[in-house]
Amino acid sequence: xxxxxxxxxxxxxxxxxxxxxxxxxxxxxxxxxxxxxxxxxxxxxxxxxxxxxxxxxxxxxxxxxxxxxxxxxxxxxxxxxxxxxxxxxxxxxxxxxxxxxxxxxxxxxxxxxxxxxxxxxxxxxxxxxxxxxxxxxxxxxxxxxxxxxxxxxxxxxxxxxxxxxxxxxxxxxxxxxxxxxxxxxxxxxxxxxxxxxxxxxxxxxxxxxxxxxxxxxxxxxx
Length: 222
Description:
Layout: H1 2-61, E1 67-82, E2 85-97, E3 104-116, E4 119-120, E5 125-127, E6 130-132, E7 137-140, E8 143-150, H2 153-165, E9 167-182, E10 185-186, E11 190-201, E12 208-210, E13 212-214, E14 219-221
């Protein structure tokens, strides 16, 4: 009888031990899941706050694209005596404005060239870095050309025809990279592509400053 009681006690003890282990496992799983939920909730709230702050800053400091306009043009040389090589020297005065009240613009790299009928007719000129402060205007007058550039027969014939007519249409192109700066914060670099279509009065043999017949605001792509 005593042995049977001992066996029953052993069975009860084993059962109690098993139930205690199960409760411990359940409690561990419960607290693990609860901890994971808390961590996920904290991360979600943190990301939400970051998103709201970023959106607020963007709405407050949202940058407006810079504005470019060609206000003056001069041709000092336009030599087509050695076709298909074209030799030319030109100068354009370009005014650029930063319309932003809170954001400055920094051009880390900027190059300029001239094209005619979608073909480049001057070599690219590298411009110095430019810091464009808030609501400021900057004028630059780079000299382009000076070397021979190979052109197609269509371009050569078009230039001759335009000189005969007395009206020459060119495109001034600026390529580079810029950064926006708002307070102590600077963005990454963005590619900038500026196209300025100009229409000038020309006359064969006439060099120097040319009358501007049309110069709409340049198209700026960032």
